[in-house]
Write a structure and sequence with these properties.
The complex is a heterotrimer of chains A (120), B (590) and C (417).
Chain A lengths: L1 E6 L8 E7 L2 E5 L4 H12 L2 E2 L2 E7 L5 E6 L3 E2 L3 H8 L3 E3 L7 E3 L9 E3 L7
Parallel strand pairs in A: 5-8
Antiparallel strand pairs in A: 1-2, 2-3, 4-7, 5-6, 6-10, 9-10
Chain B lengths: L2 H19 L6 E5 L2 E5 L5 H12 L6 E4 L18 E10 L3 H10 L6 E4 L16 E2 L10 H10 L2 H8 L3 E2 L3 E6 L10 H23 L4 E3 L1 H7 L7 E7 L3 E3 L1 H14 L3 E3 L4 E6 L4 E6 L2 E10 L5 H7 L10 E8 L10 E4 L12 E4 L5 E4 L3 E2 L10 H14 L8 E9 L8 E4 L6 E5 L5 H18 L25 H10 L6 E3 L4 E2 H8 L8 H8 L12 H12 L18 E2 L2 H6 L3
Parallel strand pairs in B: 2-3, 4-5, 4-15, 5-12, 8-17, 15-23
Antiparallel strand pairs in B: 1-2, 6-11, 7-11, 8-10, 9-10, 13-14, 14-15, 16-19, 16-20, 16-21, 18-19, 22-23, 24-25
Helix pairs in contact in B: 3-8, 3-11, 4-11, 13-14, 13-15
Chain C lengths: L1 E7 L3 H12 L4 E4 L15 E3 L8 E2 H14 L3 E3 L3 E5 L4 E6 L3 E12 L3 E3 L15 E3 H9 L3 E2 L3 E5 L3 H11 L4 E6 L9 H8 L6 E2 L2 E7 L6 E8 L4 E2 L5 E4 L2 E4 L3 E3 L2 H5 L4 E2 L4 E2 L12 E3 L10 H19 L8 E6 L3 E5 L2 E3 L6 E7 L3 E10 L2 E11 L5 E5 L1 H5 L5 E9 L1
Parallel strand pairs in C: 1-2, 1-8, 2-5, 8-23, 10-19, 12-13, 12-19, 13-14, 24-31
Antiparallel strand pairs in C: 3-4, 6-7, 7-8, 9-20, 15-16, 16-17, 16-18, 21-22, 24-26, 25-27, 27-30, 28-29, 28-31
The chains are: A alpha+beta (120), B alpha+beta (590), C alpha/beta (417).
Chain lengths: 120, 590, 417
């Protein structure tokens, strides 16, 4: 039996929630609302994060292009994904929303540009 | 008994006695031709300095070589020398601070091949760039010293010199402010203290001024508070020294060096002296990390390292003990708060320091300081909390309404005093061709024009032929300062060069054109700090928070160096560790 | 050159103000010192922007893109790579760029939207040496995200505000090592979300009640000394010092509204915000000169900047068209537990409700925010929790506000945590 401590981020209260894990059984203690309970369970079972980083870009007004994962990806893959993206170089022009890398690290999730950049 | 030997043994006895009083024991004292050699060990650096000062106190003593060992003592690491002969010169000047650059410019008036060597990556990198910029009149110096004489002489030359060199200089005057707290350390009843402060102290100061021929004037409390309304109302009276001035010391030094180069001096930066070759007690060549330079005349103007250079020339008769001075710099926003240099008269005061002051720089910032802290390490430029607190406390008493929150920066510089606490400017008695210009502490800036002339005279007396250089041009080429131009002049400048229209440093209004000029000037600025000194980019209230990336990019573009190699100042001061993603690539074994 | 509204600053504040002003059929000019519009947003590549306005968690660049596109669709004059050097009370603007050199613009109104700058090492009086490797958080954000430069590899961060936390994560995701975040107060300065996603996610220690007491290194940072804070006298505790090896010190120690230009024309300033005093129309003490965004007070959410800036832009346009009424100003004072309130004045001729923005001094639970005149409650609101790093808002309806006689005060009371 293990207990994981979670700080809820759904609202400014920031409740300290404990999730007691007993095999396949999850018990949530300390939440003050439904959203908190859902968040705590998600965080313990399958924590996910939106990845935001940059990739190198040629012929643009700046040297780096900001990108993000279209939706949250598993938290433990963040580092692998930035390493993959560190090898990518794109070229301007880019439109905000363009797919920079499809299906990163077999997650089924795309990495998209978060700004437009004209060619100079 | 020999009269001289008697004097020597008397001094020795007195010295041992005064050592004992200060808890200093088992020190061997050797006296030879008025030079005292100290050897032994003490348990603190403080005692080491005290021993040196006690020995240097006797007026007959010409120099103190202090070899006493103290706990933090470290051997200086020297670069490796190269044997290849890379140049030959009539005169080699070691040290590119204000002293060396003044001498270089002075010697460029003559038909001489002069090489100025500087170990750092720019001129002015020692105490010159980190002092409080006052051009002292000489009134604060210890009477009958060489530094006082040269200070008085030198400071009168600044008006002309600053015009020739196109550097900022303001004869703003200094007010020595005497307040109810000036004599607090004497712990006298206040009526007596006020009496002394109102009449005796001013009398003594005025008398000294008359003696050394520096114009002074006593100012009534009413007048002093009229011309400096922000002074504390505990002010009793003051003395005005109207010939006091303020300059921009690093700009001054750079200008001297540029004018020297314009007039034919060969400036070699990143060149460090590691040895000196002698031939029959005569200078033969100087060995540097870049190679050997043959020369017959070597001028030692190397600041904190002057004693080590003298050692290499086999004529060390002094030891430099570094004394740190930290200064606080405030925003220009309170412009007009004070207009004179202000010094807070205190008695008794720590010896060997004038106590610093509050002043307005030539660019409108207010400065407080400097401190005077004996330190064991020549390169220790850290500013301590105690120093910051101490400066705030001292000058808040003088200027109680000052907005201390407007602080922009603080920095430290290292003075190079010897234990006799005076300038040592003379031809070596042992080694022909070696000229000592050592122990140049404050008033080094004010004295610099006079020091340069004195050195030229010494060279002449020693036999160096000084034929006039007919092509000498005293006027340094003027660099464009865009923020000083009016509307129409500015429009014209940008029409010629669009880069003068782009502001890179918002706080100081430094333009891209000026930065590019600095990078390509005759003493090229190839790092961030060198650009800062020449253009003021990064000196403002945001302390380069906005302009650093931009200046670095311009440097990279103009010098062709990849941006990750751009330096803040010298070789190990990398600003960046690489391009984006470089660490991720490393981790992946790329 | 002549125009109706000059907007100084092309960041989120300036963009929003310009877009709305232009929609009111007046001639608008934006002056931006960077080479592109967007201000600070293009370098804020993380998400969390626009949750209030767009109901989406956008990244900074995406949020900026929306307003840049909006501005470009309209007939707004845009001068980029142009720095304003001077402004005058009669609305003359002196600016410079590499194409036109130094030039003058005559305008009918000005919107100040210059944003803020970062507090420096010297301003916090941090002792020690002056090596390379000391950066403010925003500068490193710019270097990494825009210029493609990595400033360091072994990082110590002083300050746990959002900028510091965001940069902790950013450094990790660029392959650096972050030794820890040090915070002088007993509670973190940033959002809990950022504590979790920037520090906890990467096992970066958060050292509360700690500070950096000295910087070491002659040419490049070699380390810092950190120490525990003595909560009784707000000084570092002697004997708790320890050396932390690093090559980079990041300072996230506060933002300062950039009011150099405002001070040139002597408009009234609020020492609690660091910015100009404004009324509910975002007009400063000088007629026709408006201010919005971080130049007025430092915001947490860009959405709040947009809302206030749209108000400023609308007001500037109305001023140009002589539609602003000159009814008397009623001051709004910060009361119990309140550091500041913006706007500092209300003109009581309102046609719609207004929002007061304030910051509290302490963390409080079950807080009651009350706007009072003498002892009468003008408006009140309850919040489960209020914290200094999270701006508090309270609306006042126009009917109620128009009845204010002299002045109001804003108090916040609750259980101290």
């Amino acid at each position: 039996m293990t207990t994981k401590k979670i700080t809820c981020i759904c609202c400014p209260l920031g409740c300290n929630i404990n999730v007691i894990i007993n095999g396949d059984d999850y018990q949530v203690v300390g939440e003050q609302c439904k959203r908190g309970k859902e968040y705590a369970l998600q965080e313990v079972k399958d924590p996910k994060r939106v990845l935001t980083t940059t990739v190198k870009i040629n012929f643009g007004i700046q040297k780096m292009l900001p990108v993000k994962s279209q939706i949250e990806i598993p938290k433990n893959l963040l580092y692998e994904c930035v390493k993959i993206l560190s090898k990518i170089v794109v070229e301007a022009p880019i439109k905000c929303g363009d797919v920079i890398l499809k299906n990163i690290h077999n997650t089924g999730i795309d990495i998209i540009a978060t700004r437009s950049m004209e060619r100079v | 008994m020999d009269v001289k030997k008697m004097k020597d043994s008397k001094i020795k006895r007195k010295l041992i006695k005064s050592f004992k009083k200060s808890g200093i024991k088992n020190i061997s004292i050797k006296l030879n031709e008025n030079i005292i050699f100290l050897e032994g060990s003490v348990d603190s650096y403080e005692k080491y300095v005290t021993a040196g000062h006690l020995a240097g106190n006797y007026s007959i003593i010409h120099g103190v070589v202090n070899n006493i060992v103290y706990p933090e003592k470290k051997e200086t690491e020297r670069k490796k020398g190269k044997d290849k002969i890379i140049a030959s010169a009539d005169v080699v000047i070691v040290g590119g601070g204000i002293t060396g650059c003044s001498i270089a410019r002075e010697l460029s008036k003559y038909q001489l091949k002069t090489i100025l060597i500087e170990k750092d990556e720019d001129v002015s990198c020692g105490a010159t760039k980190a002092n409080n910029a006052m051009v002292h009149s000489g009134i604060g110096e210890e009477p009958s010293t060489l530094k006082q004489k040269l200070c008085v002489k030198g400071h009168f030359l600044f008006e002309t010199l600053s015009k020739e060199l196109n550097v900022p200089y303001r004869r703003c005057g200094m007010l020595i402010v005497i307040t109810k707290d000036s004599l607090e350390n004497l712990k006298l009843p206040s009526f007596l203290s006020n009496l002394l402060a109102s009449y005796v102290i001013p009398f003594i100061i005025l008398r000294r001024g008359k003696k050394i021929k520096v114009p002074l004037e006593k100012i009534s409390r009413k007048k002093i508070l009229e011309i400096e309304p922000q002074l504390t109302n505990r002010t009793i009276t003051g003395i005005s020294s109207p010939t006091y001035g303020v300059t921009s010391p690093y700009e001054f030094c750079i200008a001297l060096a540029e004018n020297a180069v314009e007039n034919g001096v060969d400036l070699r930066l990143n060149t460090e002296v590691v040895g000196i070759d002698l031939e029959e007690n005569r200078i033969k060549s100087v060995i540097t990390n870049e190679g050997k330079i043959n020369t017959r005349w070597l001028i030692n103007a190397s600041g904190v390292n002057a004693d080590e250079i003298a050692e290499m020339a086999n004529d060390r008769f002094y030891t430099v003990h570094p004394r740190k001075g930290s200064t606080l710099l405030f925003d220009k926003s309170d412009a007009g708060f004070i207009s004179h240099n202000l010094s807070f008269f205190q008695f008794p005061m720590k010896r060997h320091t004038k106590g610093g002051g509050a002043m307005v720089t030539t660019h409108g910032n207010i400065q407080w300081g400097p401190t005077a802290i004996e330190i064991s390490e020549k390169g220790d430029l850290s500013v301590s909390k105690d120093e910051i607190d101490g400066i705030f406390d001292k000058y808040s008493r003088l200027l109680p309404n000052f907005n201390k929150k407007a602080i922009i920066a603080y920095f430290a510089g290292i003075r190079s005093p010897t234990f006799t606490e005076d300038f040592i400017i003379e031809a070596s008695k042992k080694i022909k061709g070696f000229i000592h210009v050592a122990g140049i502490q404050s008033p080094g800036i004010a004295a610099s024009p006079a020091i340069a002339k004195m050195v030229a005279d010494i060279l002449k007396k020693e036999g160096l032929d000084l034929a006039d250089n007919p092509r000498f041009n005293p006027t340094r080429k003027k660099h464009l300062v865009i923020r000083d131009l009016d509307f129409d002049e500015r429009k014209k400048a940008v029409a010629k060069n669009p880069l003068y229209g782009r502001i890179i440093c918002r706080c100081e209004e430094a333009t891209e054109g000026e930065i590019v000029n600095a990078i390509h000037s005759n003493i090229p600025a190839n790092n961030i700090d060198a650009i800062k000194r020449r253009t003021r980019a990064g000196m403002g209230r945001c302390q380069a928070g906005f302009c650093l990336p931009r200046v670095a990019k311009i440097l990279s573009r103009e010098t062709g160096k990849p941006i990750e190699e751009i330096l803040k100042n010298s070789k190990e001061s990398q600003l960046f560790i690489g391009k984006s993603k470089c660490l991720l690539e490393e981790i992946d074994g790329n | 050159m002549e125009t109706d509204v000059v907007v100084i600053g092309g960041g989120p504040a300036g963009l929003a103000a310009a877009a709305i002003a232009s929609q009111q059929q007046v001639d608008v000019t934006i002056i931006e010192r960077g080479i592109e519009l967007g201000g600070i947003l293009p370098q804020c590549i993380h998400n969390g922007f626009g949750n209030f306005i767009f109901k989406k968690m956008l990244t900074g660049p995406e949020y900026a893109q929306h307003y840049i596109d909006l501005v470009k669709k309209q007939k707004i004059h845009i001068k980029i790579d142009t720095t304003v050097l001077k402004i005058t009370k009669d609305k003359q603007i002196f600016a410079t760029n590499s194409k036109e050199g130094l030039f003058k613009i005559k305008s009918k109104s000005i919107v100040l939207a210059m944003g803020c700058r970062e507090r420096t090492r010297s301003q916090i009086l941090l002792p020690g040496s002056r090596p390379a490797g000391i950066y403010t958080a925003g500068t490193t954000q710019r270097l990494i995200n825009i210029d493609g430069i990595m400033p360091g590899s072994k990082i110590v961060i002083l300050g746990s505000g959002d900028v510091g936390l965001i940069m902790a994560r950013r450094f990790i995701l660029e392959g650096a090592e972050v030794e820890g975040v040090y915070e002088i107060l007993p509670h973190p300065g940033g959002l809990t979300r950022n504590i979790v996603q920037c520090l906890e996610d990467f096992d970066i220690p958060l050292n509360l009640c700690h500070t950096v007491t000295e910087i070491h290194g002659k040419k490049r940072v070699t380390g810092v000394t950190v120490a525990e804070m003595d909560s009784s006298n707000f000084n570092p505790k002697k004997g708790t010092e320890r050396f932390v090896s690093c090559n980079t010190l990041i300072l996230a120690v506060g933002l300062i509204p950039e009011n150099e230009l405002s001070k040139q024309i002597n408009i009234s300033m609020d020492s609690n915000t660091g910015g100009p005093i404004v009324d509910n129309n975002m007009q400063t003490s000088e007629d026709g000169i408006f201010a919005c965004g971080n130049v007025v007070h430092v915001h947490d959410l860009v959405d709040d900047v947009t809302i206030a800036s749209e108000l400023a832009g609308k007001s500037a346009a109305e001023y140009v068209k002589n539609q602003i009424e000159e009814s008397p100003l009623k001051p709004v004072y910060p009361g119990k537990n309140v550091i500041y309130v913006v706007p500092q004045h209300i003109r009581c001729d309102l046609r719609s409700s207004i929002t007061l923005y304030l910051r509290v001094k302490n963390i409080m639970k079950n807080a009651e925010i009350k706007v009072i005149e003498n002892n009468d409650i003008v408006a009140q609101k309850k919040e489960r929790i209020v914290k200094p790093p999270e701006m508090v808002k309270i609306d006042i309806s126009s009917e109620v506000a128009n009845k204010i006689k002299k002045a109001v005060k804003v108090n916040v009371e609750g259980e101290l945590l």
